[in-house]
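Re: that backbone. Tokens:
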């Protein structure tokens, strides 16, 4: 990948939220003048306004949140006590008279996503526990949310070492193959998946209510750690990452039908260290990607021929930036969450905070370009 030399040092990155540090900050979204995000490991939903972080407990481990056009957020929550399973539930935030943040999850749930009736590999591979991970909404209000396999703590290192493009079948021509044709290890395809949740109606408690119906996205194939999900400014391209593959994929996207086609590699991580995590897109078509374990956020721009050019690199004072979004008064502030302790896969994972005092912080930097609009779920 070529670079035009644009680089930003971490001296331009500001930590916001004071001394607040998340264990595993994720899924930031700017809405109604404040930043809303989650701490996956602490099972919290958080808000950041005027430099103050407020936190509210969630009943189960969250993987992501998306705003809902019907009010509040839809949270991808675990079902089981061990953090596995996954369904979408509404979360309504409110502040009490003292300014304490409260999260009401008593409303109806909308969709069981990690269900063997929805995704057959859950029944075929019961030993591979999964949870829901990153999620976003398209312009039509569908919720796209992927899963993460929890039961193999050695997976990430093994997957990366095997390389990004080891074919599993006869499709050796990468330009004609989607991610479904590649598995960076010799094993069978992983049981994880990307799901699309469409709005539908269901008869519940004596009345018709709007719910969601989930389906696994066959064009993406089996995944280990579903991440990213973002759309080009005109909405005709979807960007996606299965993190251990160390690449960002692009798919032609039909907004009307929600169908994907022409899966291809858009960009590979520029160095030997780090995997792609959360991402967002700006009005100029730039794709901003958090690089977990590399301490940076990179911006790729399409070159007009379906490939990417590395346009900008922003260094961060911690090694694990996790996800990003645009916001602020002018819409040009890039907010970035980060991780200090991720025990979702490995219960004995190292706490990074001793070596990295800013790990888990929320960061902000004005990048001089606005992000594309954030869409809300239709249900």
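Recovered sequence:
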């Amino acid at each position: 990948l070529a670079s035009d030399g644009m680089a930003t040092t971490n001296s331009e990155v500001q930590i916001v939220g004071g001394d607040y540090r998340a264990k595993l900050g994720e899924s930031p979204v700017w809405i109604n003048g404040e930043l809303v995000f989650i701490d996956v490991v602490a099972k919290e939903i958080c808000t950041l306004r005027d430099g103050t972080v407020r936190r509210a407990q969630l009943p189960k481990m969250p993987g992501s949140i998306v705003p809902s056009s019907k009010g509040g957020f839809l949270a991808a929550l675990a079902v089981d006590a061990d953090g596995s399973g996954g369904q979408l539930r509404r979360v309504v935030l409110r502040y009490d008279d003292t300014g304490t943040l409260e999260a009401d999850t008593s409303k109806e749930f909308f969709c069981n996503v990690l269900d063997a009736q929805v995704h057959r590999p859950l029944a075929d591979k019961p030993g591979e526990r999964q949870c829901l991970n990153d999620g976003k909404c398209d312009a039509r209000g569908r919720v796209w949310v992927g899963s993460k396999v929890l039961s193999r703590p050695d997976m990430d290192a093994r997957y990366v070492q095997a390389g990004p493009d080891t074919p599993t079948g006869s499709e050796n021509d990468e330009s004609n193959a989607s991610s479904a044709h590649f598995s960076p290890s010799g094993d069978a395809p992983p049981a994880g998946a990307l799901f699309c949740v469409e709005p539908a109606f269901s008869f519940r408690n004596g009345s018709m209510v709007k719910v969601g119906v989930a389906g696994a996205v066959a064009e993406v194939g089996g995944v280990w750690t579903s991440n990213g999900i973002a759309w080009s400014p005109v909405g005709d391209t979807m960007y996606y990452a299965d993190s251990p593959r160390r690449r960002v994929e692009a798919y032609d996207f039909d907004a009307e039908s929600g169908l994907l086609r022409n899966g291809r590699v858009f960009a590979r991580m520029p160095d030997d260290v780090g995997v792609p995590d959360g991402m967002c897109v700006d009005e100029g078509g730039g794709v901003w990607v958090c690089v977990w374990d590399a301490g940076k956020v990179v911006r790729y721009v399409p070159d007009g021929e379906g490939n990417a050019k590395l346009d900008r690199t922003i260094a961060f004072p911690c090694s694990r930036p996790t996800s990003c979004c645009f916001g602020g008064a002018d819409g040009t502030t890039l907010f970035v969450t980060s991780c200090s302790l991720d025990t979702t896969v490995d219960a004995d994972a190292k706490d990074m905070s001793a070596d990295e005092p800013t790990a888990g912080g929320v960061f902000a930097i004005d990048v001089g370009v606005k992000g594309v609009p954030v869409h809300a779920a239709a249900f």
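The CA atoms of residues 147 and 247 lie 17 Å apart. The longest strand covers residues 194-204.
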